[in-house]
Design a protein that fits this description.
Blueprint (H helix, E strand, L loop, with lengths): L2 H9 L6 E5 L3 E5 L5 E3 L3 E5 L6 E5 L3 E6 L9 E3 L3
Antiparallel strand pairs: 1-2, 1-6, 2-7, 3-4, 4-5
Length: 81
Amino acid sequence: MISTDSKVRLLRQPFEPVRICSNIGNAYEVIAPYLVALLKSKVFIASPNSDHWVELSYLHIALLEAISVATKGNAKRSRKS
């Protein structure tokens, strides 16, 4: 996905929770705007209530999908092939 498209979606007001899916199958849920930082060439994603985080290059973002606030689960999920 183009970095500008990702930035526009993540900066939208009011914030809409999203799942960021990478091109290797990992998925990261961003449920609040303070859990993500948009850098020049990558996005920093923090997991809520923990010290876990990941940096993901914009080039590796395959999909941004909306999630409902009621969705529960881990901040990081891996898909099995």
